[in-house]
Amino acid sequence: MAEVDFDTLDSAIEAASYEDAVLHGAWVNAVTGRVYEQMDTMLVGDIGAEEPDDLRGGDWLKVPTPIDLDLGWSLVVRFVEEQIPSHASAIDRLGRGRWRRFKDYLADHDLLDLWRSYEQGATLIAYEAWAEAHGLTLADVPEPYRQAAELVRAGRR
């Protein structure tokens, strides 16, 4: 199994999440664990890596977006259901601009640290599942993510 560095994969998933999939994207080599990010050079300048010849086939896997990994608003819904169900009706009423309002709400109710920990744990769990499904393992996972993932797993039992 090839290893892919956690921070590198995290950065690649962020790059893959940009709206213009033609100008932005990321791939990981299933054999070597090497990550290639394609970015609009008008936005970030020369990133210094030539596109691999076999990028659109061979051993390269398209890196998913956070939405592909169920790390969008559905993660918020799971967090509310599992961690703060008494706040569900208030979160449901956030409406337009709900991401910002959600974080403001959490800050106002001293719940932001709980959210950040839950988000880190759920992120690691999603990355591990994706990596395992593609024959990869994650390397150099930050300890706070490992600890948070254990708490998220324990809360789902």
Radius of gyration: 17 Å
Based on secondary structure, the structural category is: alpha+beta
- Report on the biggest sheet: 3 strands, antiparallel
Order of helices and strands: EHEEHEHHHHEH
Averaging pLDDT over every residue, what do you get?
A: 86
Q: How are the strands of the biggest sheet laid out side by side?
A: 3-2-4
Euclidean distance between termini CA atoms: 29 Å
What is the multimeric organization of the chains shown?
single chain
User: What is the global morphology?
Assistant: elongated
Let me know the number of strands: 5
Give start-end ranges of low-pLDDT stretches. Answer: 42-48
Q: Which percent bin holds the helix content? A: 40-55%
Tally of individual helices: 7
Percentage of residues in DSSP E strands: 5-15%
TL;DR of this structure?
This protein is an alpha+beta fold and 157 residues long. The protein has helices at 6-16, 41-44, 73-83, 88-92, 98-108, 112-133, 143-155; strands at 2-5, 25-29, 35-38, 60-62, 136-139.
